[in-house]
Design a protein that fits this description.
Blueprint lengths: L1 H9 L7 H6 L3 E5 L5 H17 L7 E5 L7 H17 L6 E6 L24 E6 H10 L6 H20 L25
Parallel strand pairs: 1-2
Antiparallel strand pairs: 2-4, 3-4
Helix pairs in contact: 3-4
């Protein structure tokens, strides 16, 4: 996960706020051993509670990875409603939020191999627990925060599948696709 964070998220500047917390050692990494969604939800509740209680100078954000659970993206996507419900039940909406990453992440209306899906692809199903206050500060410091999504799409379209595979971050490309043939990007959504 650290390789993915360093090479893809920070290296490609997909999240301009990530480098600071990474360099300061404020990213808490948790590998869940849960094999069922209910067990992952319990672990999520523990991690949300721990992040909320932690000093932001020591732990600003948490990456909760689930390598043994929710391998199917649609199941993972369905689980996100449970994750949001846990946040609400803890009374932490407005204090914390959850972002999601998955090896087969797919935006609605895109083909599975559309390179723009890779902005949210990670080696494992991952829940990124973030502090709202940190997001607010980062957005104030980054003058065009609303443009990050579009910039990421452009970055990945320029990088292409071969460029992503060259990062060797283990996020989203099966071995058979790790070195796409010339022109492999031609099947992507041309409306972007």
């Amino acid at each position: 996960m650290r390789t993915w964070l360093e090479r893809a998220v920070i290296g490609l500047n997909l999240c301009p706020f990530a480098k600071s917390v990474h360099v300061k050692g404020q990213v808490h990494y948790v590998v869940s051993l849960a094999t069922e969604p209910h067990a992952l939800r319990e672990e999520l509740v523990r991690e949300l509670t721990a992040l909320h209680a932690a000093d932001p100078e020591l732990r600003d954000t948490t990456l909760l990875m689930a390598p043994l659970c929710l391998q199917d993206f649609l199941d993972f996507n369905d689980f996100l409603a449970e994750a949001d419900a846990a946040l609400d039940e803890l009374g932490l909406e407005g204090d914390l939020q959850i972002a999601s990453f998955h090896p087969q992440f797919q935006f609605a209306g895109t083909a599975p191999d559309d390179i723009t899906n890779y902005t949210n692809r990670a080696p494992y199903p991952t829940l990124h627990l973030l502090r709202e206050a940190s997001i607010d500060r980062a957005v104030q410091a980054f003058p065009e925060a609303e443009m990050i999504f579009e910039k990421n799409m452009q970055t990945l379209e320029q990088l292409g599948h071969a460029g992503w595979a060259a990062l060797k971050v283990g996020a989203g490309l099966p071995e058979s696709e790790s070195t796409p043939a010339s022109g492999a990007d031609k099947g992507k959504d041309a409306t972007r």
